[in-house]
Design brief:
alpha+beta; globular; Dna Ligase, domain 1; single chain; about 30% helix; Rossmann fold; about 325 residues; 7-stranded mixed sheet
């Protein structure tokens, strides 16, 4: 059987969600084929916990010493949302050790994790994106520039990050200062994006048995103003309709765009693409190269609607990356 390291945790505000994703993967991994080891990564502390004992990872070769037995991993299942698992850092380390992993490569991870760069690439492929501006912490007069160049409402969010951590919707200009401060607490770069009215649709895509497969499109209907951290992970704060109650041609178009971006951006593993559909056009919002895999997460629900249980989805991801 193959020995699989499930890496979770990380160094961002998504640490807790990542650990839940990792535990879910560990719980449902096919034990007749794989031996899972849940590795918690946080800063310089990389550890495997078993029988209330902590076994540190040997970083020179990413192995574990348990008693007298040295564990060499056949592959890594990446469940780290945010840095260092979603921005390419961990991927570069694993590449140097020639250990396969279940997520996009260094280049794709780094470029798509940066929202500003990612939007530019997607726009370059001919897809529509909301009007936005990119700022750094040391830029001067950011609020005045936003007043001149963008129209309300706007979303203010960290340029690098996920799970809507540090994100705010600004409906009135007197809310802008607090929103900027909140975003800059999470990142030294932010993106400010004009609101686009429409239905929020998302589509998960993976390659399985050599074929790019788009899962059923999901509509996200938050109970609050937008799909923030609370709406994503607190029960009852949003409705996630799988499959979305939309015309078949809209469903097909969303899956087509998502599959095309998956291919053009050289993606690997399971990736989720988020859009706003105005009734006529799709506006790309962002993409998640390590989407959530908790009980509350969207991707497992998409897989279930496609006819796969959690175990089969995980197995398909591992099989493809082992090739």
């Amino acid at each position: 059987m193959l020995q699989v390291a499930i890496v979770a945790g990380g160094d961002s505000g998504e640490y807790g969600i990542s650990m839940k994703s990792g535990r879910q993967v560990e719980l449902f991994m096919d034990r007749s084929r794989f031996i899972p080891f849940l590795i918690e990564i946080r800063g310089k502390s990389w550890n495997y916990m078993a029988d209330r004992k902590r076994f540190p990872v040997h970083k020179d070769d990413f192995t574990l010493l348990i008693g007298r037995k040295r564990i060499h991993f056949d592959m890594v299942f990446n469940a780290i949302h945010g840095t260092p698992g979603e921005d390419g850092k961990l991927q570069g380390y694993l590449d140097m050790l020639h250990i396969p992993y279940t997520s996009c490569n260094v280049t794709t991870s780094a470029l798509t994790f940066n929202k500003h760069v990612c939007k530019g690439m997607v726009a370059g492929y001919g897809y529509q994106t909301a009007k936005s501006r990119h700022y750094k912490m040391n830029d001067r007069h950011i609020d005045q520039t936003i007043l001149k160049e963008l129209s309300l409402p706007v979303f203010v969010k960290p340029n690098n990050g996920g799970s809507s951590v540090g994100m705010s919707r600004v409906n009135h200009w007197d809310q802008l200062k607090a929103a900027l401060e909140k975003a800059f607490q999470e990142d030294d770069e932010i993106i400010v994006e004009e609101y686009v009215h429409g239905r929020e649709l998302t589509c998960g895509v993976l390659r399985t048995k050599g074929k790019i497969t788009a899962l059923p499109v999901t509509e996200i209907i938050p109970k609050g103003e937008f799909f923030d951290y609370e709406a994503k992970y607190r029960k009852g704060m949003s409705d996630e309709v799988v499959p979305a109650m939309i015309p078949e041609k809209v469903h097909s178009k969303c899956r087509e765009i998502s599959s095309d971006l998956y291919k053009k951006l050289n993606c690997k593993g399971i990736v989720r693409f988020d859009f706003i559909f105005t009734g006529k056009h799709f506006y790309f919002l962002e993409m998640n190269t390590v989407p959530g895999l908790t009980k509350a997460s969207i991707v497992p629900k998409m897989a279930a609607a496609h006819g796969w249980d959690f175990t089969e989805m995980i197995s398909r991801i591992i099989e493809e990356d082992l090739k």
